[in-house]
Amino acid sequence: MPERRWTIVIVPSDNEGTRTFSVTDSFRKAALWTAGIAVGVVLTAAVYLFTPYVSPAARIAQAENERLRAQLELIDGKLAALTDTIAQLGVRDLQMRALVGLTPDSLSVAAADSATPADATPSAGVAAFLPAGARKPFARSLGFGSDASEKIEELTRRAVALTRSFDAVNDSLTQHLERIANTPSIMPTVGWLSSHFSASRFHPILHENRPHEGIDVTAPMGAPIVAPARGRVTSVGYEAGYGNTFEIDHGNGIVTRFAHCSRILVRAGQVVSRGQVIATVGNTGLTIGPHLHYEVHVNGKPVDPLRYVLPDKIAD
User: Is 141 helix (H, G, I), strand (E, B) or coil?
Assistant: First the structure.
């Protein structure tokens, strides 16, 4: 079967000199494929010429940069939260220092004011705990730069400063607690006051006026006597007129003395705590009945024991 042929007629606008071309079907297909390939080559060349070349290594580096940028943004957010936390700790540190009577620490003040604008004074919560002359010097901005390492270094410095300040507060609180624990504050036994502290009192047995350097608490024979505060027993023995007597040194110059006991349940050198049973009420020595003679000495001088007894702890 003869190959199919295609006839192409070219007619000019004046209809003169008409030309006729005859092509085979194979030639037509080849011409179309050639035209398609040419168009593809032109389009590819255009894309190649007008699109910047990015190497695979550059694409990997770009992806890595994007990942690092996201991590840095996350770190910046965490650093901002940590800055706020340290500022709050600085405020609490100032409050605690004021509570225990310590002067404000410059570094803890700086940490508390870390979010304060440069042209502003410290916040009311912080300024309330600063001396008047110390408020403006610390009212400065401690904002960070763009370098994360500088932020971390600054936060570390503030954290170390707060740690030192907290240690000082803890030491001061410990001293206060020890002082409170060692300060007599309760009546040693339950009974009623039969004789008060006095510079001159008529002695019921000797029938003469003499100082009464403590208080007498009348109570049943054998009633428990408890330590009014923590301390160390310094002496235990029998003393003329006072009978079975012992003393407790509470530190800070405070010494308590107990007399007329029927039994003493502690020994010299023993450490006792507030509320611990240390003896029993008796009538040893010069007495007209069972009672406890209780004295408080401060720096070697007798004082009224009632000054060292909480009001609701007095049995009268």
Answer: coil
For residue 292, give both structure tokens.
């406890």
| Nearest-10 Cα torsion for 256, 261, 265, 271 | 0
CB 265 within 8 A of CB 277: yes
pTM of the complete model? 0.49
Mean pLDDT over the full length of the chain: 76
CA-wise closest residue to 211 among 102, 301, 113: 301
d(CA 220, CA 201): 24
- 37 Cβ contact partners less than 8 Å away, ≥ 6 residues apart: none
Beta-strand runs (E) in the chain: 5-10, 19-24, 192-195, 198-202, 209-212, 215-218, 224-226, 231-239, 243-251, 254-264, 271-272, 277-281, 291-298, 301-303
Helix-, strand-, coil-residue percentages of the chain, each rounded to 5:
40, 25, 35
User: Range with the lowest mean pLDDT among 23-32, 140-149, 236-245?
Assistant: 140-149
The CA distance from 243 to 222, in Å, is: 15
Backbone dihedral region for residue 299 (phi beyond 0: left; psi -120 to 50: alpha; all else: beta):
left
Q: Measuring CA to CA, which residue among 295, 287, 272, 179 is closest to residue 226? A: 272
Higher pLDDT, 271 or 180: 271
pLDDT at 65: 85
d(CA 131, CA 104): 8
- Alpha-carbon distance of 91 to 184, in angstroms, equals 34
Residues 6+ apart with CB under 8 A from 230: 181, 182, 250, 271, 272, 273, 274
Neighbours of 245 (CB within 10 A): 23
pLDDT tens digits, residue range 250-273?
A: 998 999 999 999 999 999 999 999
Helices 56-99 + 148-182 axis angle, to 10: 20
